[in-house]
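Continuing from yesterday's entry. The apo prediction looked reasonable, so today I'm repeating it with adenosine-5'-triphosphate included to see how the binding region is handled. Same sequence as before; SMILES copied from the compound registry.
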Amino acid sequence: MTRDRNILGWLLSFSKLFRNWLIIAFLSMILVASFEIAIPYKIKEIVDGLISNEIDKEIIVSISTHVLLLISGILIFSAIFSYILNITGQKIMHEIRQSTFDHIVSLPQSFFDKQDVGRITTRITNDVNALNEFYTNVLVQFLKEILVLVGILIVMFSFNSFLAMMIVVVNIFIIIFALLYKKRLRRVYAKLRLTIAQLNSFINESIRGMSLLKIYNKENMNYSRFQEYSNQNYQANMEQMYTFAIFRPLIEFMYVFSVAIVIWIGGGLVVNNSLTIGALLAIVFYIRMVFRPILELADKYNILQSALAASENLFAIIQTPSEKNGTRKFDGNFKKIDFKDVSFSYDEDNWVLKDFNLEIKKGQSIVLLGPTGSGKTTIVNLILGFYVPQKGNIYIDDYPLASYDLKSIRENFSVIMQDTPLFNNVPEEGSYHDVEEIRSRGEKQIDNIKKIISRPFHIIILDEATSNLDLDLERDVKQYLDSIKNKTSILIAHRLNLIKDYNEIIVLENGQIVEKGVHKKLINKKGEYYDIFNLNKKFYEI
Ligand SMILES: Nc1ncnc2c1ncn2[C@@H]1O[C@H](COP(=O)(O)OP(=O)(O)OP(=O)(O)O)[C@@H](O)[C@H]1O
Ligand SMILES: [Mg+2]
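Holo prediction written out below.
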C-alpha cells in the first residue's frame, strides 16, 4: 500500500511541474461536466412547459439558444482541456523519460548485469508511453466521469429521491459486477502480456542468432517453436475477445433493464404527479450518461493495467540506489594502488577473488596473466569502482577507493575493456534505418585504442586490447606502450610477445596469485608462467 502511494507520489511529483496548466484543464473539465448535465435539464424544461402549456415561443427560443450555447461550450472547453492535457502529457513524459535515463546512467554495473538491454529499452520507451496514455486518457477522463456521476445524482435526487435511490441501488449492483469482472480481465490481460513478451524475446533471439541457426540447420525446429508461441498469443487474444464479447452485451442489457425499471416506476410516479414527464425523460438521458463510462471500462482497464505495470517497472528502476560515490578528488598523482585482502563475488555465492593482495606502484607496468575466468577483468572492474568488494578494500594512497569521487578516478584512466563495442551510430536525420558502419573487430579495436590514447591519462589499462589485431598492428601497439613507460599500465594479454619485458608479471589462478615477478625469474622457476610461455612460443614463434 505504501509502495503504491510512493509510486503515485512519484508520478504526481511530475504533474506539479505543470500545476497551473493542469488547474486550467481541470476547471475546463468541470465546465464540460456541468454543461453535459445541464442539457437534459433544459430538455426537461421544454417538455414540461409544452405539456403544461405554460410556455410561449419566446421561451422555447431562449431555451434552445441555451442548449446551443451549452453544446458549443462543451466543444470549446473539451478542446481546451484535451489540448492542455495532451501537451502537458507529452511534457511530463519528456521529464519522466529524462529523469529515468539519468538515473539509469547513475546505477552500478551490477544492475546492468542482471538486466537485458531490450528490457531497459522497453522501460524508457514503451513504459513511459503507457504512462502518457494513463495521464491523458484514463486519469482525467475518470475524474470527469466521477464529477458527472455526482452531478447527475444530485439532479436526480432533486427530481425524485425515491427513483434516485432505485437508480443508486441498481448502480451498486453494476459496480459489484464490474469489480468481479475486473478479476477475469486482469487474468486475461496478464496472459496476453506474457505471451507477447515470450513472442518478442523469441523473435529477438532468433534474429540475433540467425547465422548459428542456419549453421546448425535448426530453421524447422525454430519454426515450430515460433508457431507454438504465436499460437499461445493467438489463444490469449481470442480469450480477450470472448471476454469483451460477453462484457459489453451484458452491460448493454443492464442499461436497457435500468431504463425499463425507470420507465415502469417513473411512469407510476408521473401518474401520481410526483414526477414530471420532462424529468422522466431527463432521467433516461442521464442513465445513458452513467452507463457510458462503465461501457468504456473494459477498454480503459487495459490502459490502466499497462500503465500500472509500467509505473511499477519504472519506479523499481528509480528506487534502485545509484552508484555510491565519495568526495575525495583523484588527480592522477598517487604513490600506489593497494588491494588488501580483497574478496569479491558477483553473485554473493562464488568467490571470484579470495583474500587477494596486490600493490600497483605509480609508473609500474604490470601484466595480468591467467586462464579464462581466473579474475583478470574482475580486478580491473574493481579498480574502476564498477563493483565493490564484499571483504577487504582497495586503497589509493591509504584512502579507501569508496571515499573517492568515481568520476575523478575514471577520468585519469585510459581503459580498453574486453568486449566493449564502440558506441553504435545514431540514425541520421533523413534516414529511416540504422546506419551503423560495419567494421571488423580488429578495426573496432584500433579505433578504440586510438580514441583511448588520444586523451590525457595517468594509468592505462588494456584488457585483451590486441586480441583481434594482426601481428604487425600488435607490434605498433607494443611500440606505443614502450614509449609511454613512465605511465602506470596494467596489461591483460594472452599472447606473450607483448609482455616479456614488463617489470611485474602476475599469474592468476582461481582469483589468487600463483606466481609473480619478472620474465626471467619466472622462466627460471619453471612453473605456471614457464608452461604458458612455452605454449605461446609454439604458436607465435616469439
Ligand atoms: N558480470 C558478471 N556476473 C557474474 N559473474 C561474472 C561476471 N563477470 C565475470 N563473472 C565470473 O567471474 C569469474 C572471473 O571472470 P573474469 O572476467 O574476471 O575472468 P578473466 O580472467 O578476465 O577471463 P578471460 O580471460 O576469459 O577474460 C568467471 O567465473 C566469470 O564467470
Ligand atoms: Mg577478461
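Comparison notes:
- The CA atoms of residues 337 and 360 lie 5 Å apart.
- The longest helix spans residues 219-271.
Will overlay with the apo model tomorrow.
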